[in-house]
Amino acid sequence: MTREEAAALVYGNPEAAIELILQLVATLERLTARIEELERKIALLTRDSSNSSKPPSSDGPGAKPRARPPIKSKKRTPGGQPGHKGANRDLTPIEEVDEVIPVFPEKCDLCGTVLTPDPEQPTGKYWRHQVFDIPQLKPEVVEYHRLCIRCSCGAETWGKIPPTARSGFGPRLTAFLAHLTGRHRVTRRGCQEIAKTIFGIDICQGSVCKLHQEVSESLAPAHEKARQTLPKQPVLNIDETGWKTQGKGRWLWVFVTPLVAFFHVAASRGAKVLKEILGDEYKGVLCSDMYSAYKAFHNGVRQFCWAHIIRGIKGIKHACRSPDAVKFSKWMLSETGRMFALWHAFKDGHLDRDTLVRKSVPIRSRMSKCLQQYCACSDYEVRKAAKSLLKHWNGLFTFLDHEGVEPTNNSAERGERPAVQWRKICFGNQSEDGELLTARLLTAERSCILQGKNPFQFLLDSVIAYRSGLPGPALV
């Protein structure tokens, strides 16, 4: 329609012009709503681990690369820079060295004269250079002969194999194969191949599974004692992730303390799992995300994970659905940055806790003002986020006042990360016994790492004690 045609319509037929305008306005509103919906869907499809709760492993090749600090100088080359101290392996004491080989120079570096070593006139100077290697691996085979002795009564009695040797495989191999699976996510077939190619031990996959089951049974007391200590802990970080058993959905829960990471596979993601592990009531500080099951179980002191909150706010900014979304996210992210700057200064020893709390007061005040301002925002995502954070306000800053509480739930997420990697290659479990093996192995391995212990040695001690009928080592 040209300008002249529009003018003729307005002045010649006003009713038709009004009807046309109303139709255009309705079409515009419908298309605007459609555009907003499509933008929301595009934002959801393009979210990654930096602006949502998606795991980093889900980021595809098209994901935006992580931000890196700017290069200060164009002349800077990759690798260690001049003046960098470096990290060198300490030399083994000379008394622990297996073999010392003297190496003499062949000729003088200055004049080229051929040098003949004279052991009676050494300079006393030498440079130590050590080479580490592993010995040629050969299985240690111990054979037991069950001898028969005839009694005076005429009966023949055969000798019995010691309990520690009734399995066809020793405790060290048993613990090692379990360690490969629990810590390094090696499959049963992989354990079989390693035993054959590295150690020269012929073992079938069924035997690997049987040895794993023995390790699981040996860890049962330590796993149960670890569970019993959880309700008494002053601070608990908890998280859950998906798992599978025979293709059916399960949930792998992790409960983390400074010294213990307890894993449990359950069919439910609800509060009843928390009651099963922690009892009807937990009196400490519970750190987690804002999942409703934690609220249904625990009405006490909470600390919500700021990493989840920050990613959610970044997701709102990423979607850019409205000017309010951009303003809200920028305001909240800037205040969060100031809060974490204070927290890191406190962790580095530059602030005491009283100063941390005092300096955080204006930051918290501005955050509250921001949330209250956007509670009635027309943008649904902004309004939802503001109302949610105000609703959970009492659990946002517990880390400022309570010793041992962190602002994020990273300790639990780090604890379950190896399990997530394991899940991607093992496709879950095939039985309840497999679920117990998963929980017990992960608990032992991760707890030993938190305590600075050797996880393989812990598994070995557990197997030896189990075969001997003795109490095994404890994690707590």
Shape field? extended
- Please, how many helices? 14
What summary fits the major beta sheet? Answer: 5 strands, mixed
Tell me the distance between the termini.
Answer: 82 Å
| Residue windows where pLDDT falls under 50 for at least 5 positions | none
Structural class: alpha/beta
How big is the Rg?
Answer: 33 Å
Strand content: 5-15%
Strand order in the sheet with the most strands:
5-4-3-6-7
Instruction: Output the helix-strand order.
Output: HHEEHHHEEEHEHEHHHHHHH
Helix content percent band? 40-55%
Oligomerization? single chain
Counted beta strands: 7
- Overall pLDDT score: 88
Question: Could you outline the blueprint of secondary structure elements for this entry?
Answer:
Layout: H1 3-12, H2 14-45, E1 148-150, E2 156-158, H3 171-184, H4 188-197, H5 205-229, E3 235-245, E4 248-256, E5 261-266, H6 271-278, E6 285-288, H7 292-297, E7 302-304, H8 306-319, H9 323-347, H10 353-373, H11 380-391, H12 410-426, H13 432-451, H14 455-468
Parallel strand pairs: 3-6, 6-7
Antiparallel strand pairs: 1-2, 3-4, 4-5
Helix pairs in contact: 1-2, 3-5, 3-13, 3-14, 5-13, 5-14, 8-9, 9-10, 10-11, 13-14
